[in-house]
Amino acid sequence: CMSEQPLDTHAVRAVRNRNRNRWMLIGVVAVFVVPMLIAFALTLVGWEPKGTKAYGTLINPPRQVDAVPVSLAGGEKLVWRNPQWQWTLLALPGANCAHQCQAQLADLVRMRATLGRNAERLRLVYLGPPLLPETLAALVPLQAGRDDTNAFADLSAEADDGLALALVDPGGYLMMRYAEGYDLGGVRRDLPKVVN
What we know:
- By secondary structure, the protein is of the alpha/beta class.
- The protein starts with a helix and ends with a helix.
- The mean pLDDT is 88.
- Helix 3 links the parallel strand 4 and strand 5.
- The chain has helices at residues 4-44, 99-113, 133-138, 184-194, and strands at residues 57-64, 70-72, 87-93, 122-127, 143-147, 163-168, 173-178.
- It is built from 4 helices and 7 strands, in the order H-E-E-E-H-E-H-E-E-E-H.
- A 7-stranded mixed β-sheet has the order 1-7-6-3-4-5-2, covered by helices on one side.
């Protein structure tokens, strides 16, 4: 009887060790699998983390616009793929860019300045009815131009004095639009994600 007791204790210890090892393996697997299952479930219900959501409307698929002719106020054509590899924020007014529209243009110029060292990576291009020379002078570095083929007419503001925006990447692809009534703070939060 004495010799059986150490064997039983040894067998019990072996079973306990085996069970403990199984639980450790299950725990290690759970550490990796459970977060993936949670992420999958959140994706299925459409949830996105706040920092990754864009404020503008993503244009999917992106529209290639590098061949769209745009005449600038000085007579030259806009070069979409320029050597500075700049993003282009298009300001697309309604039929008449009056007081409200011009105030929004001034806000865009100030917002661009808040980008700091990345401000040079973003050019502002206004495509709408001609503005007075003194208005344009007050809005530098905004470039004024004309959409020669009305390629951006579907993105322009609907209200007479409204303003909509569109973002074009350095490769000449229209990536995002901000409809009339956009939140300038949201535009400002989107830009550092792409203009760097």
